[in-house]
Amino acid sequence: MLFRKVMVANRGEIAVRILRSLRELGIRSAAIFSDADREALHVAHADEAYRVGPGPSAESYLHIERVVGAAKKSGAEAIHPGYGFLSENPEFAAACEAEKIAFIGPGPEAMRIMGNKVAARRRMVERGVPVIPGAGTPLRDAKDAREQGRAIGFPVLLKAAAGGGGKGMRIVREEAAIESALERTRSEAEKAFGDGTIFLEKYIESPRHIEVQILADRHGNVLHLGERECSVQRRFQKVIEESPSPVVDEKLRQALGRKAVEAARAVGYLSAGTVEFVMGKDRAFYFLEMNTRLQVEHPITEAVTGIDLVREQVRIAAGETLARAQESIVFRGHAIEFRIYAEDPAHGFLPSAGKIRRLNNPSGPGIRNDSGIYAGYEVPILYDPLLAKLVVWAEDRPHCIARARRALGEYAIKGIRHNIPFHLWALKHERFRSGDYDTHFIDETFHPEMLQPKEWARDVARIAAAIRAHLDRDRIVVEEGPARGPWKWVARREGLRGDS
């Protein structure tokens, strides 16, 4: 039997996406919100919503006691953490277990092992999963770093043992630079993760980021759902992802899948997870890390397999067996995901907060838009700038790219800056279109001035704005709002229900 009520301990597009699957499963839902999110879309989509504190994450979405307290107050039998925030925090998973609330994700021990890159690497070596050449032991000091660097050869990569999300990593191309690089990386790691443990490994030139989605249940079944290519990155943060990878054939796919399943078995993994690999030009691949949660880019796997990953997570947490065997997984067509961020690519991707005045979402065949925004929504500066994810599917990659250009052309977000112009630029670039790209694609090919308007275009925009202001002077503007339950919307905005 599945749960009667599940709390979603997150916000934004991922909270909305999880709430949709819960509704399809016939499970009542409870959301949490901070003071900055009283009018957020996920609050309107949930059956109930509970305030967990002020706007800063540390006082609300990251506050374990308040989140668990809200779940107990709501009577939820399980918590889905989404991604980010507490999703990979073993103490949070343990706190849920202590209160007899099911955590929809892996157990705390698997999180602890995979959350420490040194421990994870050691476990992978024991199970025969290929790892990048390196000592695999924490660096003691600069002398140790120089010796390890000489042993495997430069360039090397310094990595924080507790790192993630692209933070706490630094490439060192020559021995003379390693001491200062070690100091900066250690300082960054201590600030970001509270752990200054650093280790060193060989840097793979022209690397591609390939990851494999896995599912594992309590009955010993583990299967993989193919690979995702996530090599379009900016400062180690993914921007565009696609499935399948343009460079992975069926033989390589099966090899990647087998190693990903072995990595999951090595830690007794449960639920949905992602095993990340780095791949060199020779297509040799090495274990990078495992993300013990639902990934931002999970919809492209759903698009090519037809499997609802959140639904499977809920079923697994309730003790059910995986619905399919490995042999029955069918990969169909091609999917690309575009992360829509509140940032300005024409000016160094600076964050952009403010009110969304108008919004036009793309639609049509093969289009899915996972979003946490609406016209009239005030984008807060407090959280991750991800606004939405545009997922495009078609029967093959060329058709998918053509469909994506059409959909991005329809997408209109007015009132703040966003990175849709960057996506349109990337789709035109020959390296992306041919699939011949790696994680340096943006650094090597993109310059902000490419998207800055010409002076004549600025003049046209100024004239158009003046005409629009004149036409709007006597017009009554009615902002579009959420369609469901206006009385609930007002009640939650005013904090009349679920205040802690």
Key words describing this protein structure:
globular, 22 strands, 8-stranded antiparallel beta sheet, alpha+beta, single chain, 5-stranded parallel beta sheet, 35% helix, 500 residues
Protein architecture, described:
It is a single chain. With 500 residues, this protein is of the alpha+beta class.
How many extended strands?
22
The number of helical segments is 17
Radius of gyration: 23 Å
Mean of all residue-level pLDDT scores: 92
Largest sheet: 8 strands, antiparallel
Strand content range: 15-25%
Class derived from helix and strand content: alpha+beta
Helical content band: 25-40%
Kindly report the spatial arrangement of strands forming the biggest sheet.
13-12-9-10-11-14-21-19
Head-to-tail CA distance between termini: 30 Å
Low-confidence stretches: 476-483
Shape: globular
Outline the secondary-structure elements.
Layout lengths: L4 E4 L3 H13 L3 E7 L6 H5 L2 E6 L10 H11 L3 E3 L9 H9 L3 E2 L4 H8 L1 H10 L15 H11 L3 E9 L2 E6 L5 H16 L4 E5 L5 E9 L5 E13 L2 E7 L6 H17 L4 E9 L5 E7 L6 H8 L3 H9 L16 E8 L1 E2 L5 E2 L2 E2 L2 E3 L6 E5 L6 E2 L6 E9 L2 H14 L1 E3 L5 H9 L1 H5 L6 H5 L9 H18 L13 H8 L7
Parallel strand pairs: 1-2, 1-4, 2-3, 4-5
Antiparallel strand pairs: 6-7, 6-8, 9-10, 9-12, 10-11, 11-14, 12-13, 14-21, 15-16, 17-20, 18-22, 19-21
Helix pairs in contact: 4-5, 12-13
